[in-house]
Amino acid sequence: MSADRTGSWAGDALARIQAELPATPLRALAAASAGGVDVLVKDETALPTGSLKYRHLRALFAHAITTGHVGAGTHVVVATGGAVAVAGAYLAGLLGLPFTAVVPARTGPDVLDRIERHGGRWRRAELPPAAGQQEGAALADRLGGHFLDHFADADRAMAAGGPTLADEVFAETTPEWIVVGVGTGATSAAVGRYLRRHRLPTRLAVVDSESSAYFPAWVTGAPDYATGMPSRIPGIGRPRVEPGFQPDLIDLVIPVPDGASVAAMRWARDTAGLDACPATGANLWGARHLARRMRENGTNGSIVTINGDSGEAYRNTHLDAEWLRARGLDPTPFEAEAGDWG
Ligand SMILES: Cc1ncc(COP(=O)(O)O)c(C=O)c1O
């Protein structure tokens, strides 16, 4: 292909991606707002594939196109089974690019279906989850394609690209705290950078799941801290510190017991009318902790947090009592607290 045609494909592709980012709503969560402290939820389920991870893939595609790694006909590969694979399939479909997700062995039929519906393909990983990235990169090599590595590159791509979730939130309000989770680290880093760049007084808290490396890494200041344990809360918590995690941008890390994340997710769905995922449960648990602290200090204001994904995909897992019991994940001790925002 001539340089001209390559350039015009890239220009058209970037314009098409740019057009695909509706601002998501920031809604007051009435059931959580009390005593002069309002809780607002940025509802990322309104994104085209229903998940916050859509923003990551959008930034990764835009970055890969801008840097010349993805062009007309490039076969794009990701190595993950959840919301990242669905968003990747959607964007590849939009640009007319072949797409394959290397999915973990236990990926459910719902996700596989959604990948196919967007025109993507999937194949089961042959190596253990810790080697997923190498397997994806090797497949992309064999296909002469490009591996989108969201753990290695999502933060860099977001930092290089256009507006982030932070632009949308702070265009509407300046809360006392913003509470987010950490998977790749890209979301919290985008928020932290925005706060500094615009000299805002809002403080950034992140929540971390039980066996994750982020809380101990932040407390000890050891950037290479590793637990080697997979997270039981999809989308947040990692066995090791990923390159996107920027501890210096974070004011507070709140460790959240996994049972508390599940209890808060259930409270959100059953009582607050919020179709939340387990990671959103962790966000709400963290927000509740800060709301209490604000009330005790007599501080009025708001807390913004994120609903990253709907609960639908967790019907047979985190929303299923038998599944929880088999994994020793017990929300019961946290239920009363999860609903106590007074
Ligand atoms: C609900 C939820 N899931 C997942 C994440 C992880 O995002 P990232 O991969 O950018 O660290 C976040 C971050 O805010 C979140 O709020």
From TrEMBL:
The keyword Plastid does not apply. InterPro entries: Cys_Synth/Cystath_Beta-Synth, TrpB-like_PALP, TrpB-like_PALP_sf. Keywords: Pyridoxal phosphate. Residues 23-305 form the Tryptophan synthase beta chain-like PALP domain. Its cofactor is pyridoxal 5'-phosphate. This is Pyridoxal-phosphate dependent enzyme. It comes from Actinophytocola gossypii. The lineage of its organism: Bacteria, Bacillati, Actinomycetota, Actinomycetes, Pseudonocardiales.
